[in-house]
Design goal:
heterodimer; A: four-stranded antiparallel beta sheet; globular; B: mainly beta; four-stranded antiparallel beta sheet
């Protein structure tokens, strides 16, 4: 399983865009990149998943360069409720394959 | 769609007793379910992977006789912590995957169960 590296923490302010970059130098051909959000005492929540280029949904965008050795989660116009831990995971693109969680990035949104 | 529930959400038990935690996929069939534990301010640690109708695969260092996992149907997996001790106190989270038509390896997580052993 490809190892991921993320910043430990980031601070931001309401209304700003938050970009979290994750390094995954050993990503394999079959690997997808998935981001989860976790609030205290809750299970992680799926945010977005991608394989290459750019993916956008109603809550975030995921930018993946051509070499796929990194990815950037972009949260537009964050609010206080976006304060959470964000995990970047890399794994094979098949249901049932296990995920390995790294340390995650603790994002604090300030008023 | 893709809702996973856990029961109970919180449990306190005495040392030496056993506790069962249920994980259900409410609106899809989960061919695979995963069990994690998480200590305060730490990341999730995978304990085991279970496929419906077969024995669970445990991660290195996880005692299979202490953490019994049963995945009897495509919508239910249970984790039983046997002879619980205070060091087993943790946040236990399950996840499920196998939703048809979805790409990649999305896992849908339950809300977690807070176990406190006194």
């Amino acid at each position: 399983l490809a190892k991921t590296t993320q910043p430990i923490s980031m601070d931001s302010y309401e209304g700003q865009e938050v970009n979290i970059t994750c390094s995954h130098n050993n990503i394999a051909t079959n690997d997808y990149i998935t981001w989860y959000q976790q609030f205290p005492s809750q299970g992680p929540r799926f945010i977005i998943q991608g394989y290459k280029t750019k993916v956008t949904n109603e809550v975030a965008s995921l930018f993946i360069p051509a070499d796929r050795k990194s990815s950037t989660l972009s949260l537009p116009r964050v609010s206080l409720s976006d304060t959470a831990v964000y995990y970047c995971l890399v794994g094979e693109g098949a249901a049932g394959n296990k995920l390995t969680f790294g340390g995650g990035t603790r994002v604090l949104v300030k008023p | 769609g893709a809702v996973v529930s856990q029961h109970p959400s919180r449990v306190i038990c005495k040392s030496g007793t056993s506790v069962k935690i249920e994980c259900r996929s409410l609106d899809f069939q989960a061919t695979t379910m995963f069990w994690y534990r998480q200590f305060p301010k730490k990341s999730l640690m995978l304990m085991a992977t279970s496929n419906e109708g077969s024995k669970a695969t445990y991660e290195q260092g996880v005692e299979k006789d202490k953490f019994l996992i049963n995945h009897a149907s495509l919508t239910l997996s249970t984790l039983t912590v046997t002879s619980a001790h205070p060091e087993d106190s943790s946040f236990y989270i399950c996840s499920a995957s196998g939703m048809s038509g979805r790409p990649g390896h999305e896992q849908y997580f339950g809300p977690g169960t807070r176990l406190t052993v006194t």
